[in-house]
Specification:
Keywords: Aminotransferase, Cytoplasm, Glutamine amidotransferase, Repeat, Transferase. GO terms for molecular function: glutamine-fructose-6-phosphate transaminase (isomerizing) activity. It is found in: Cytoplasm. Its EC number is 2.6.1.16. By secondary structure, this protein is an alpha/beta fold. The strands form three sheets. The chain has a five-stranded parallel sheet with strand order 4-3-5-6-7, sandwiched between helices. It has a five-stranded parallel sheet with strand order 9-8-10-11-12, with helices on both faces. Helix 12 links the parallel strand 10 and strand 11. The chain is globular and about 55 Å long. The model has no long low-confidence stretch (mean pLDDT 96). It binds fructose -6-phosphate. Fructose -6-phosphate binds next to helix 4. The site of fructose -6-phosphate has 15 residues, from helix 4.
Length: 361
């Protein structure tokens, strides 16, 4: 049942304020400015002993894991990174007892992720799951974890589950942070930010008509460049994946800082750029990157917290705490990908060559 929407993708994008509300519900502890995640199976002493976190997933879940790794480093100050599960499991990784492994999956059935979890467990590692589908293979195989509570996701292209997975990582990061060195004040600051998300998501979704107009403006592109820095970079990668999956327009994502090391050669009017420009300590650096693109006659669509003069168009998104900005900045670009694909007559819920859960190698 699409509830009045023309596609599941549109329905699922539109459900995100409620979905985020669901992942937060019942977990916030105002007294200690922390969150409780019932199924983690990791007590405070064990959490303090974690020296590294390695996040494994595929596709969109891998991108959510990249933002998750940044959140964990920022809030809990534990070294963390994300890697495609498929690559991890074939490079004979060093499995370290002080590392906590986190497997991320919407379906909980992705074979490469499941196989990585099984290999890790065979070697005695502790593995948590950040999974959407309750009782799925990865959820069962993990030592503990947290459910993402996005609700059923039918469209092959993941949208609401991406957002909820990142929020689930923010909760995990806050939980670990408050067991370690995150202050009460910072814990409260992040909690207040989390509580603002559902309303801010509704605000972004209310701008759909404008995003649809912008999608038409860029629909002639043969290829698009997506750029961002640090917090904005995984957002750029995910937005680029969304556009190519659903519209079949070629897209690339780069850290804005890498442009001058090669990809700047591609910039011309037929290759527009989408720039993720949060209002944080890298704002001036991002502005400089946009200037470089303008100097090569590139068109720019910015996603930012204020109108960007260097850009041809800006989608303004509401500001949250710096650490939580990536949760919101990708949402307008889900709508951008959707409207581009719709105008091109694509099979939005079932893009060619793709399957919802990849249970084969
Ligand atoms: C992207 C997409 C895929 C999946 C990937 C992992 O929109 O749907 O890239 O994210 O196949 O799937 P899960 O999260 O089910 O493990």
């Amino acid at each position: 049942d699409m509830g009045g929407h023309d596609t599941y993708m549109h329905k699922e994008i539109s459900e995100q304020a409620d979905a985020v509300d669901r992942v937060l519900r019942g977990r916030i502890d105002d007294r200690f400015s922390t969150v409780h995640l019932g199924g983690l199976n990791l007590d405070a002493r064990e959490a303090r002993g974690v020296r590294r976190i390695k996040i494994l997933g595929c596709g969109t879940s891998y991108h959510a894991g990249q933002i998750g790794a940044q959140l964990i480093e920022e809030l809990a100050r534990i070294p963390a990174d994300a890697e495609p599960a498929s690559e991890f499991r074939y490079r004979n990784p060093v499995v370290d007892p002080d590392t906590l492994y986190v497997a991320v999956s919407q379906s909980g059935e992705t074979y490469d992720v499941l196989a990585a979890v099984q290999e890790l467990k065979r070697k005695g590692a502790r593995v948590l799951g950040v999974v959407n589908v309750v009782g799925s293979a990865i959820a069962r195989e993990a030592d503990g974890g947290t459910y993402v509570h996005a609700g059923p996701e039918v469209c092959v292209v993941s949208t609401k589950c991406f957002t909820n997975t990142v929020v689930a990582f923010a909760l995990l990061a806050l939980h670990l942070g408050r067991i370690r060195d995150l202050s009460v004040a910072d814990g409260k600051r992040i909690i207040d930010g989390l509580r603002r998300l559902p309303e801010q998501i509704s605000e972004i979704l209310a701008g759909e008509d404008e995003i649809k107009r912008l999608a038409a403006e860029y629909a002639d592109a043969k290829s698009m460049m997506f750029i961002g820095r640090v917090r904005g970079y995984p957002v750029a990668r995910e937005a680029s994946l969304k556009l190519k999956e659903v519209s079949y327009i070629h897209a690339e994502a780069y850290p804005a800082s890498e442009l001058k090391h090669g990809p700047l050669a591609l910039i011309e009017p037929a290759m527009p750029t989408v720039a993720i420009v949060p209002d944080d300590d890298l704002l001036e650096k991002n502005r400089a990157a946009m200037e470089e693109i303008k100097a090569r006659s590139g068109r720019i669509l910015a996603v930012a917290h204020q109108v960007q003069e260097k850009a041809d168009h800006t989608i303004v998104v509401p500001k949250n705490e710096n650490e939580l900005d990536p949760i919101l900045m990708g949402i307008p670009l889900q709508l951008f990908a959707y409207h581009t694909a719709l105008a091109m007559g694509r099979d939005i819920d079932k893009p060619r060559n793709l399957a919802k859960s990849v249970t084969v190698e």
